[in-house]
Amino acid sequence: MDTASQIHVFNRNGTYYFRRRVPKDLLSLYPSSQMIFSLKTKDRREAERLARIESIRLVQEFQRQRSYLAAHALGNLPTKILSVYAGHAGSNVGSTCGSDPWLRD
Q: What is the DSSP string of 44-101?
């Protein structure tokens, strides 16, 4: 298997993008089943490095969401929870494209 696909990276018109599926148990909390955004680089090594960072952030976010679900299992939950990717500081994530916050330019 290609190394890039293992770290959730793909190339579109020379620019590398990050793509990761939302885990099945968390699908109800996200507006899309995948998170897709530009890593804003044309360099494969840099894209792989950035993707590893984003992947760690996502694992942490998924853990927080699972904790939230467990803590609020008896209460009413909102239908969607905005991700820290909607505007976390220090990210290379671009601006939102269209109505899907996971598809970034």
A: HHHHHHHHHHHHHHHHHHHHHHHHHHHHTTTSPPPS----GGGT-TT-----EETTEE
